Amino acid sequence: MPYPESMVQLIEQFAKMPGVGIRTAERYAYYVLSASHDSVEALAKLMLKVNENIHYCRECYNFSEDELCHICSDPTRDHGVICVVQEPKDVISVEKAGDFPGIYHVLQGTLSPLEGIGPKDIKIKELLNRLKKHPFKEIILGTSSDTEGDATSVYLLKQLKPLKVKVTRIAHGVPVGSALEFVDKATLARAFKQRTEV
After folding, report:
1. Fewer CB in a 10 Å sphere around the end CB: N or C, the chain?
2. How much is the pLDDT for 88?
């Protein structure tokens, strides 16, 4: 690359970020180069602060700056309903929808035998321990509708059956606002199988 060595290293570091290609990494490096010293210093300090202070909630494994995340420690949430999701970013997606009043459990991944990820590699044991300690009215499985998400959901259903608690799964099907002609075959088939009475 025809850049000074420190610029090359900065571009290489940016390019390591998920979804960032070399062109985007170069744009980020140009931003750092053209930004004020105070802006770059503030950004660097904030990155270090996030890296040092953000960890997983001891209860649900969502991101948190405290021992318990803001959702687990919120007394206004319905602590009798728990939604099981794959990653912390899924919590953010559900929260943005604004309709879920309960709490969460983040599995930190999905089962994927082809990649060697089994039940011991994600937070299933922690979920089961949590369910034994606290009485829940409902467990909502909020895993994705891909192969790994479905496999994780099926495995969890088998583990949860002995607890004799209501278990539901988020609906998967036709997205709101989309025309049927543009919906793929598998999604449409699932939408018909999971139809509800009106």
Report:
1. C
2. 95
pLDDT of residue 181 exceeding 90, the answer is: no
**Interatomic CA distance for residues 105 and 139, integer angstroms:** 10
Nearest by Cα to 127 from 105, 149, 109: 105
For the record, the structure tokens of 123 come out as: 């937070």
Q: Is the pTM of this model over 0.85?
A: no
Q: Quick: pLDDT tens for 65-85.
A: 999 999 999 999 999 999 999
The residue written with tokens 């990155």 in the block is: 47
Burial of 7 (C-beta count, 10 Å sphere; 0-12/13-18/19+): middle
Distance separating alpha carbons of residues 70 and 185, to the nearest angstrom: 40
Q: What is the percentage of the chain residues whose pLDDT exceeds 70?
A: 96
DSSP secondary-structure letter at 198? -
For residue 96 the two structure tokens come to: 């943005």
> 167 and 141 in contact (C-beta within 8 Å)?
yes
Q: Which two tokens stand for residue 14?
A: 């940016």
Return phi, psi of residue 104, to 5°.
Answer: -125, 165
All domains in the chain, ordered by first residue: 5-53 (1.10.8.420), 63-193 (3.40.1360.10)
Angstrom distance (rounded) from CA 77 to CA 101: 6
